[in-house]
Amino acid sequence: MLQIPVAYNGITSCVVTLREMEKKFFDILRIVQKNPVFGKTLMCGGMLDEKRMEILYEILYAIDRGELTDTRNDIFQYGSLIGKKDLLARQIFLCLLILLDE
Questions:
Q1: Would you say 49 and 35 are in contact if contact means Cβ atoms under 8 Å apart?
Q2: In this structure, are residues 74 and 55 in contact, taking their beta carbons and an 8 Å threshold?
Q3: Which domain of life is it from (predicted)?
Q4: Residue 6, beta-bridge partner list
Q5: pLDDT at 102 over 70
Q6: Gyration radius of the chain over CA positions
Q7: 24-54 confidence digits (pLDDT tens)
Q8: Is the Cα dihedral 77, 70, 59, 19 positive or negative?
Q9: Residues near 46 by Cβ (< 8 Å), separated by ≥ 6?
Q10: For the segment 52-91, what is each residue's pLDDT rounded down to a tens digit?
Q11: Longest pairwise C-alpha distance within the chain
């Protein structure tokens, strides 16, 4: 099992397996799908970039359908929208790149 370092809150660092991270992606996706107010609240608070989240949604939806090969450009577009201090988005991008290599 491939393992990658993941930063939590920009301070603590630990190691999580790629499958655990993938599960977290899908959990987040399900939460936002079930409660759109949650996603909008995060975006209004400046915690999420709406365009980037739309792209991430499309990527995760394609992965869920098993269509990872068609997501390469979307993954790099997502990466190009990440700000300097957005550590979580960087970790998500790294995980997506690893998924491309599998």
A1: no
A2: yes
A3: Bacteria
A4: 14
A5: no
A6: 13
A7: 777 777 777 777 776 676 666 555 677 888 8
A8: negative
A9: none
A10: 888 888 888 887 787 877 788 999 999 999 888 777 788 8
A11: 37
